[in-house]
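Re: that chain you flagged

S.,

Sorry for the slow reply, it's been a week of failed gels. I finally had a moment to sit down with the sequence you sent. For the record, here it is as I used it:
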Amino acid sequence: MHYHLIGICGTAMASLAGMLQERGHKVTGSDQNVYPPMSTQLEELGIEIMKGYEPENLDVGADRIIVGNTISRGNPELEELLNRKLPYYSQAETVKREFIRGRHSLTIAGTHGKTTTTSIAAWVMEVGGLNPSFLVGGVVQNFRASFRVTDSDYFVIEGDEYDTAYFDKKPKFMHYLPEIAVIGNIEFDHADIYRDLQDIKFQFSRLMNLVPGNGHLIVGIDSPVAQEVLDEMEGKIFTNLETFGTSDKAKWQARYIDVSGELMRFTVFKEGQQWGEFETNLIGEFNVRNCLSVIIAAQAWGISQEKIQEALHTFKSVKRRMEIRGVEKGVTVIDDFAHHPTAVEETLKALKQKYEGNRLIAVFEPRSWSSRLAVFQEQYEKAFNYSDYVIIAGVYDTSKASELGKVLDTNELVEQLNLQGQEAFSLPDADEIVEHLTPEMKEGDVVAIMSNGGFGGIHEKILNVLKEG
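Prediction finished late last night. Pasting the structure tokens below so you have them in one place:
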């Protein structure tokens, strides 16, 4: 068949494109935001990308159209699709129908850490001999891809809580038929589609209710809200419940976390009894929790402790997750996807531990829907505590964001950070930030750039000025 994907450069959509092509289908697509790493992956696969959303893009004669969840009414290509009455589907429904139905599915969900945890899970299941298919919202460095299609009965997928499509407002994770569901944490996010925290809690309770009786529900109870949802569902969970965290209340606990060496080490306890010792190249306590959730899922699928240890030891991480983009003149430039204030804080905390004694420069672009809005104004004032020097970029596409509510006030944020004793600046875009930082950066600095978009190619621009200097 011929599939045409509108919004093909989204992380999940680009992965689906590759999966469909691997199944022997012809794939084309369109997008207006074309940037790495997904655009690079599509180019390497030889998949044609039409730049911009034009009615004539539909003249390719596709059998089925997949509409990405960022595509809304008023989009010229979507309007033409509706006018022509062509068959169309969502990304999540297509993944379920084409790849998950009839297989063992592990769905990784939560406000933070989904991509990294799903990537760890794919690698652990691979080392454990299950040869899984997988779909991740980022490029897994061990596989150098964000997806894989095999003839295995096992499928590992990132379960996004964002809505499925303009015509299907359920979270994407509701389509993924989880035999095992991991919910790492729950916080308020996606202010563009969810009214409040209660709204998000309800959606995660629905995911909990999907897991069959012979499956496993794995919940991180270091997250107070995740614990609240479990408490509210007491007597209504009809599957095997596994809780995890660093808390004494968790069935599975991570203790003795040691970040002093090249590798991060921790010990796992199950119901108070020591279960195993593990080490990983990842950094940060949040990544210990990510690993712990995968350990529980892997043992549920029968993978030996030795294979889990081997996999965690050899896991290489994910592109755009504390990824070192380069080191020039002794300055380390790091790319990270963090945009929620909790993720920003955890990322900076982990980097401060890893690069102890070095000056940590945080550069943040408010680009996700929630980060563009004032809903997290106060939380961002605390999120940069672990950094020594802060630059806040201008809010991305303020005109669009203002339609949803009050926009984040970056000047006020910087003012508050300065009052707290931090050196902080507000600059409009990547070019001005690079110009500002050029005379400022010195050997030993670590520049952590946080954005969920392309951010004007700022990483390469900084590395280039360092190289030329």
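What I noticed first: The chain has a mean pLDDT of 93.

Talk soon,
D.
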